């Protein structure tokens, strides 16, 4: 025996088309599982840096050469670019029969890969429910990460095996449910980033020197409570029906951060609806609160009972 031989010989050669934040991380994770990345394509300087960091020594080549060299190809391009890419690869003969073609779009299932499937490709949709930084930390975060998986029946075992090898947990999503599944993730994760960033800006404006340190424990507890208890975890002035406090918030936001008012009002209305539906907001307190929330971002439609600063407490 050769003592230097890899005890886990590579089973598949892996290629990446689109060296954004996701592709190199998944390929690096597959490499840890014994597969062998052989080619990656990228255009921007940032994508080339990511590929060099996460897949050192792997050649950077055009997409057609990635397809030629790899048995498993990760298509990790933006959602809107995916259909055209697949059609182009199929039309130019770049797709080989028996080649595993995996896309990571949350929006699409496997039907977007139909042009490649018709020429013999094996289609899989593996979407990691994770936010990516484009650094090596992403590989670590895949441990325990759920993947939204859609695959033909005959490829379900292959899809499950790949996800597990990357340290993930497969969650099966029906083809027709992919857009709703992706909307749910975007609503939670993408909008959370916007809300946190706005909150930090407002805290800085209020004189807080370390808004991240202030928000960390609070938001961590709120997220944990929400995941454990759902709507029962709602707290704060909207759930309590404190119309005066909410009106004061809106007035301050109009003065100091008018760009945040529309989002605050929209989220507060949604919170009020859920609090009412779950019996957390008392109906007798809801009328004044909903009156405050009926105001538009610029203050149009505010109740006549509001004071000069928008305080509707009475």
Q: Taking Cα atoms only, what radius of gyration do you get, to the nearest Å?
A: 25 Å
Q: Gap between N and C termini, in Å? A: 85 Å
From the helix content, strand content and strand pairing, which structural class follows? Answer: alpha/beta
Strand count, sense and closure of the main sheet?
7 strands, mixed
The amount of beta strand, in percent, is 5-15%
Q: What is the mean predicted local confidence, pLDDT?
A: 91
Helicity, as a percent range = 40-55%
Lateral strand order in the biggest sheet: 2-1-3-4-5-6-7
* N to C succession of SSEs: EHEHHEHEHEHEHEHHHHHH
Q: Count of DSSP helices?
A: 13
Q: State the total count of DSSP E strands.
A: 7
Estimate the global geometry from the Cα principal axes: elongated
Oligomer: single chain
Low-pLDDT runs: 1-10, 302-314
Overview of the molecule:
This protein has helices at residues 23-32, 45-54, 63-69, 82-91, 114-117, 137-141, 156-165, 178-205, 211-229, 237-240, 243-256, 261-277, 283-293; strands at residues 13-17, 36-41, 72-75, 100-103, 122-128, 146-150, 169-172. It is an alpha/beta fold. It has a seven-stranded mixed sheet. α5 (114-117) links the parallel β4 and β5. α11 (243-256) runs parallel beside α13 and α12 (261-277) runs antiparallel to α13 (283-293). The longest helix is centred in the middle third of the chain and has 28 residues, at 178-205. The chain is elongated.
